[in-house]
């Protein structure tokens, strides 16, 4: 702080304490007269922020206010978010961040993060060295190609990495100075942006193919050279690119894709937690997917891993997972299946009615990843209830309008028997005098904890096994009393506590598998806690 004084100190978000500077500090750092007389604690400052936020009616205005706070006083910003995560996470991340990205151009702010244009492919190392922090450990990077359910938002997609990294810090304790939001600018197919003189990104259609692949390769190389301990998290890339990038780099560098692996881990956590709370073995679960696309494969792959970890062979595991797509049940005799779909195709008669498939296969759980809103109709839920005492119903398609059924439908049609979790949020439902709280498979239970463990251990890779360990650890955090209310995931209000416990388990796994970049400490729990960022003034 000695080098930064007076007005500059108040303008430095990392060092600024505002009215919490003591009289001695005000004198020492040339702040006298720049602050009102009272010296306040961070708790008092937080109360003021809460009050000011409550004066805004629209979430987008609360978002803008919070982002200004982040640019003004980082410690107070994180203190505020951590004080009530259930209230503030929807403001700094989904759903509000979606609108914020759409309006990114109009929301004037100081730059936070890096814009890397494909035109700069050969200068990436130099550009990365412009970033003021020299030891960056975590980057969330997008190309803005498929932002939430909003489509191509070009460089305005940067709002997503910014928001996500805020969650790494507030929900996982990753120190903010080690994080770096990045958008790769490869053009946009958003016609509105292309015709808008105020759109500040590259004004051309998305550059694809080899040129795109070479740019991504240059980016990965530059990041690893300039920041040797970096973990790259890919975010909101269009599906095909996302899978290709992940497969190209996951064995070579420390990287993961939250849309694919984080979602798979959180869905798997739900099934593990249900098995545990119902006192059933996970290996007794049978799954039927509606939809056999990218999301289905991400989740099914992790379920296979879990079956294998619990003692089944791969062949046995595959027998317990069925899929049903737009052309019906995936069976061996079908000629329209892609290579990766064949492993989930079984010897069976054809079936093109999903409700009938439920009676035929008798799954304990159905997973909706079809994008078809309403596809889990009354007949489907009733058939699930006929073959299960407690049918597990997971409509995972986003956004809400694409959800295969609503929470209310699942509880009503199953006569209160369903165990329900969805991709999109649903409000609690009352059925025959009892309140059911639907679960939401929110990746926030996975990635901040993963981030903290990777940061602390300086992990060199993120393997599927590590993600499965994260899923198991999340499942352990749910209590029987939560389950009684219908919950199968921990409460977001407890997110920091949950993340620490999950991070400890992940870190153990990282050390056990020889993927840590630091020496194994005596107590992993103390070690993890010692690495965490705590939003208090120093
Ligand atoms: P996708 O387009 O790769 O797959 C969709 C699948 O649904 C295809 O197999 C298709 O044949 C099937 N389908 C379409 N209409 C159908 C119908 N009427 N009956 C039966 N099957 C039908 O899409 P993707 O990426 O797998 O996403 C699916 C949904 O899952 C989306 O709503 C997405 O929001 C959600 N989701 C996606 C994740 C991901 O990692 N891509 C993660 C979590 C959720």
UniProtKB/TrEMBL annotation:
Alphabetical list of InterPro entries matching this protein: Aminoacid_DH-like_N_sf, Malic_enzyme_CS, Malic_N_dom, Malic_N_dom_sf, Malic_NAD-bd, Malic_OxRdtase, NAD(P)-bd_dom_sf
Gene3D superfamilies: Malic enzyme, N-terminal domain, NAD(P)-binding Rossmann-like Domain
Pfam families: malic (PF00390), Malic_M (PF03949)
Classification via CDD domains: NAD_bind_1_malic_enz (cd05312)
Required cofactor names: Mn(2+)
UniProt keyword terms in alphabetical order: Metal-binding, Oxidoreductase
SUPFAM superfamilies for the chain: Aminoacid dehydrogenase-like, N-terminal domain, NAD(P)-binding Rossmann-fold domains
Domain Malic enzyme N-terminal positions: 70-250
Similarity annotation: Belongs to the malic enzymes family.
Protein name: Malate dehydrogenase (Oxaloacetate-decarboxylating)(NADP+)
């Amino acid at each position: 702080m000695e080098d930064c004084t007076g007005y500059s100190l108040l303008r430095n978000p990392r060092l600024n304490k505002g009215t919490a500077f003591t009289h001695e500090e005000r004198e020492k750092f040339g702040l006298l007269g720049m602050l009102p007389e009272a010296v306040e604690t961070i708790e008092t400052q937080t109360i003021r922020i809460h009050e000011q936020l409550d004066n805004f009616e629209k979430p987008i205005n609360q978002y803008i206010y919070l982002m200004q706070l982040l640019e003004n006083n980082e410690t107070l910003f994180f203190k505020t978010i951590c004080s009530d995560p259930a209230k503030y996470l929807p403001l700094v991340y989904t759903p509000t961040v979606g609108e914020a990205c759409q309006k990114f151009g109009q929301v004037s702010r100081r730059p936070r993060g890096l814009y890397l244009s494909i035109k700069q492919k050969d200068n990436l190392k130099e550009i990365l060295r412009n970033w003021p922090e020299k030891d960056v450990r975590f980057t969330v990077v997008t190309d803005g190609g498929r932002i939430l359910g909003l489509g191509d938002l070009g460089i305005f997609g940067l709002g997503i990495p910014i928001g996500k990294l805020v969650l790494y810090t507030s929900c996982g304790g990753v120190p903010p100075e080690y994080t770096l939001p990045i958008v790769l600018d490869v053009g946009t197919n958003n016609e509105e942006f292309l015709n808008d003189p105020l759109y500040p990104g590259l004004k051309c259609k998305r550059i694809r193919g080899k040129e795109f692949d070479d740019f991504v390769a240059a980016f990965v190389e530059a990041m690893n050279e300039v920041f040797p301990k970096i973990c790259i998290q890919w975010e909101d890339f269009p599906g095909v690119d996302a899978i290709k990038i992940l497969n190209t780099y996951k064995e070579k560098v420390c990287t993961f894709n939250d849309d694919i692996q984080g979602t798979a881990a959180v869905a798997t956590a739900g099934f593990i937690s249900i098995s545990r709370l119902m006192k059933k073995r996970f290996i007794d679960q049978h799954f039927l997917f509606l939809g056999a696309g990218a999301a289905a494969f991400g989740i099914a792959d992790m379920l296979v891993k879990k079956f294998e970890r619990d003692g089944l062979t791969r062949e046995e595991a595959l027998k317990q997972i069925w899929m049903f797509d737009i052309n019906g049940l995936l069976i061996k005799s079908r000629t329209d299946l892609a290579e990766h779909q064949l492993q989930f195709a079984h010897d069976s008669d054809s079936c093109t009615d999903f409700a009938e498939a439920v009676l035929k296969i008798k799954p304990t759980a159905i997973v909706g990843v079809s994008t078809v809103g309403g596809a889990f109709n009354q007949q489907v839920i009733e058939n699930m209830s006929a073959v299960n005492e407690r049918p597990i119903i997971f409509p995972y398609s986003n956004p809400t309008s694409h959800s295969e059924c609503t929470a209310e439908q699942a509880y009503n049609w199953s006569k209160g028997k369903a165990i329900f979790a969805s991709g999109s949020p649903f409000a609690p439902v009352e059925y025959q005098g009892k309140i059911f709280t639907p679960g939401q498979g929110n990746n926030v239970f996975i990635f901040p904890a993963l981030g903290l463990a990777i940061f602390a251990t300086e992990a060199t890779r993120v393997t599927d096994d590590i993600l499965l360990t994260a899923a198991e650890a999340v499942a352990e955090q749910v209590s029987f009393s939560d389950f009684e209310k219908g919950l199968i995931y921990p409460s977001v209000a407890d997110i920091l506590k949950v993340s620490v416990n999950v991070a400890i388990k992940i870190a153990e796994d990282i050390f056990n598998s020889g993927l840590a970049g630091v020496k194994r400490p005596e107590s992993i729990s103390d070690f993890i806690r010692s690495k965490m960022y705590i939003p208090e003034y120093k």
